[in-house]
Every structure is written in structure tokens, then in C-alpha cells.
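Design a sequence for this backbone.
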């Protein structure tokens, strides 16, 4: 049996808005992110949803809780769905990272998938390690709930990994697709393999903005 997975990036945070790197740092949604979460929940209100699972970081849990509440479902959490850990890069603006760590920043931007950032409060992980962790988590949840429809709320990097796996895109190739806050991205899991059905649905966010104006 195949499993339908609606993979969603959390709503906006204050750090997203200024391009401050979050990683494992636990940042809450800002007001716009909370609005996006409610708009997302309304967009999924009439869809069959059997299970809602989120990263255990609060920006993902807040987004997922809006969906779970509307469907009167419990919220499951999984630390393996966290964003990539960036070690000493976390909490810094991208521009500051480039100035303070020019060599490591260059490797990161060049998509060296085995490069590891300097340690900070936590040890960083390479993109290859991150990819394996998050794909195992997504496939694991889907496999344990075969034949059902799952909403999985995670992070931009997690969605990137799923996209690459589903379309057969190499880990070291440039990212040529967007991963938007509170976007709906639809996958099917069958035989342990993800396929991509729809990417980057954000119409619900635009409609919500119009509603606010009216």
C-alpha cells in the first residue's frame, strides 16, 4: 500500500525574516507565521488526514498544532525531523557567517556534502548525515502508517532532502527550487521510495492575505 505524505515547512519566524540561521535553535513563529499556520489549517480542513507529526522544535510544532486541532488529532513529534544542525553558524546572519568563517562558508555554498561547520553549542552535521537522518525519519513514519495520509511538518532543509530523494537529484547539485514557509508539498511513499506529486502550494497563504484586507 502507498502512503500519502503532505510535507510542510513551518511558518515564518523572526529569524527567517532577517536571514538568521536557525538550525536546531528553538525559535517560535512570529505573527506572520501564526497567520500562515492558521491559513494552512483552513486549506487542509476538508482533506482526509490520519496522522499529524512534526519536528520537536516549536516553530514546527506550532504550525502542526493548527492542523491537528482542526482535525481533532493528536500531535506526534520526532526529533529526527529537525532542521540540519549548523553548529557554530546557528544564530548568525548569513552575511556575518561569510565574514567570520570565509573558508567554511565557501564550502557550504559550494555544496560540499561532507563538510562540517565549526562546533557551537552543538556539534554540526554534514549535509550527507542530515539527508540520511531526515529521509529515514520520513520513510519510517510513512512505512509505519501504510495506506494512510500523513501531514508531516518540518523545516526547509528537510523538505529539500525529500525533494532530492523523490526526483533523483544529487546532493551536491545546486538547489534550483524554492522551499516556502507553510507551503504544502505532496509525496507518495511506496516500496520505501518517495515520489513527488505536487510542490510548493502556497495559494492558501495568498487567499488568507486577501481575507485580512477585506
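Sequence:
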Amino acid at each position: 500500500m502507498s502512503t500519502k505524505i503532505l510535507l510542510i515547512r513551518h511558518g515564518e519566524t523572526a529569524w527567517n525574516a532577517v536571514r538568521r540561521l536557525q538550525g536546531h535553535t528553538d525559535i517560535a513563529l512570529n505573527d506572520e507565521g501564526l497567520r500562515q499556520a492558521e491559513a494552512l489549517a483552513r486549506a487542509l480542513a476538508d482533506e482526509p488526514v490520519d496522522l499529524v507529526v512534526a519536528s520537536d522544535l516549536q516553530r514546527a510544532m506550532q504550525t502542526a498544532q493548527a492542523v491537528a486541532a482542526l482535525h481533532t488529532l493528536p500531535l506526534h513529534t520526532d526529533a529526527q525531523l529537525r532542521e540540519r544542525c549548523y553548529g557554530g553558524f546557528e544564530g548568525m546572519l548569513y552575511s556575518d557567517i561569510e565574514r567570520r568563517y570565509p573558508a567554511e562558508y565557501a564550502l557550504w555554498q559550494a555544496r560540499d556534502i561532507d563538510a562540517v561547520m565549526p562546533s557551537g553549542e552543538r556539534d554540526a552535521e554534514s549535509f550527507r548525515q542530515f539527508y540520511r537522518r531526515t529521509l529515514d525519519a520520513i520513510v519510517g513514519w510513512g512505512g509505519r502508517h501504510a495506506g494512510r495520509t500523513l501531514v508531516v511538518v518540518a523545516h526547509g532543509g528537510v523538505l529539500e532532502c525529500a525533494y532530492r530523494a523523490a526526483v533523483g537529484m544529487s546532493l551536491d547539485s545546486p538547489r534550483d527550487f524554492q522551499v516556502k514557509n507553510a507551503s504544502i508539498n505532496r509525496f507518495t511513499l511506496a516500496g520505501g521510495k518517495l515520489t513527488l506529486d505536487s510542490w510548493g502550494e502556497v495559494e492558501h497563504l495568498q487567499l488568507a492575505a486577501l481575507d485580512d484586507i477585506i
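Residues 127-144 form the longest helix (18 residues).
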